Each structure stands twice: as structure tokens, then as C-alpha cells.
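User: Can you predict the 3D structure for this chain?
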Amino acid sequence: MSVIETVSTVLTIVAVCCFLFLSTLATLVDIFPLNIGIIKKFRQFRARSTIDVLRELKIDISGIKTENQYVNIPSEFRGESIISAAKAIIESNTHNLAIRVGENEHFSSKTFINIMGASVNSANAKLIAKLLSSFISENKSSIGLFDFLCTPKSGSPIIGYELSNILNVPYVIHKSNDRIKFEPTNNVDDEFDGEMPEPGKIALLIDDSSTGGTMFIDAAKALKKRNYQVKIAVVLFKPTGKRGAENLQKEGVILMGPIET
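Assistant: Here is the predicted structure, written as C-alpha cells:
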């Protein structure tokens, strides 16, 4: 063995020993809840050094975080059963009525799928939330991590609420085009209902469907303005031929859902 190889081996052993020593010391720190400044700094250093070591070992930290989050997400439906159950509830709430939908981009249709109205029924809202929970669980690699849910107020906020209970994550409602505006001196949030998480967290947008994507886009812009991350929007169904997915993609948001109608 050359001198360089010997030195490299020794340094590696020293690094491992130092890491083990720090881990042992960190355990003692956790056992004894000392609250002095140097201990706080050590805890922060410990967290950073552990992450650095894992990265050097080429361990997928984000993948581990995702697995840990999704292990607790209920998945009552699987595969084709998600699609068949979603189709069943959509068909039972489809009405032969000529309508025009869309806020900025209008689309005409001879049928009306009233999932918003159906969600007023508690059993329907909980069923749809279970379907979305199952869909999210099965698509964890595409959806990834998220910290809270957000639904447009003009959408189906009851579904978002039920889903947040299933996933056990915070929930906020975006008040798009709300006619009530508060003066700044009132210290009232006129964009969102609900307790906002700390900036930097990841929002998952939720609704029954999206046509032109306007409500989702407004919510995403409002969230990003407050330094939240928005990457994915999940709906029960994606209307065929509409430009919701295309418009959302321009804003850096991917539209996902179990079926297209």
C-alpha cells in the first residue's frame, strides 16, 4: 500500500470515529435537555453534519423523507379501483345541462358535473377525499413532499378540508376574487383563510377539477408571493380538451388526477 493510500485510509477512519463520537455526544445532549447556547449550536451542527455525511454516501435524503411521509397516508383504493370509484361518483353527479364554465377562458358543454354540489354531502366529501388520498399515495414519486394543502374558495373547499384530516396536514383556503377586502390596519389576511405555515413550506393544491386553471394559478401566485413552494395540483378529474394543465404548466405547476372526462 502506498503512502497516499495509507494516509487516505487513516483519514477515513479518523472521520468515521469523529462522526461516531459526535453521534454519541449528540445522544447524550438529547438525554440531558441542556438549553445553553453552545448546546443549541451543537444540535444545529449535528443536524447539518449528519445530512452532509448522508449526501457523501450518496443516500437519497429527499427519497427517505418522502417514504417517511407517505408511509402514513391511507390508501383505501388501489390501481383500477381508484379510477372506477372516481368514474362512479362523477357519473352519479353528471347532469344533462348546457353550461359555460371557466373564469378567463370559457368552455361550453352539454353536461354539468357537479362535484362541488355533491361534496356538500358529508359521505360524498369523505369518499372523494379517500380517493384523492389513495391517488396521492400511489403517485408519491411524482407528487413528492408537501407540507400543507390549499384549495380555492370558489372551488370545492369541503373536499380539501376532508383530505387534510385524512393526511393530517395543515389546510388553507385561497380567497380568489373575494369581494371583501380588509384595510391593512385591521391585521386580517384577505387572501387566505386558515393558519399559514412558515414560509418555505410546500403547498399541494387540491380541487374537484380544473378547466382553464385560473383559480389554481391565482392560488399558486399568491402562495409563491409569500415564499411558499407550489409544484403539484391534484384534482378528481381533468376535463378533456381544456387548457388547465397547459396553463398551469406555464406557472411551473403540474396538474394531476386519476381520470379525464
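The CA atoms of residues 3 and 139 lie 51 Å apart. The chain has a mean pLDDT of 81.
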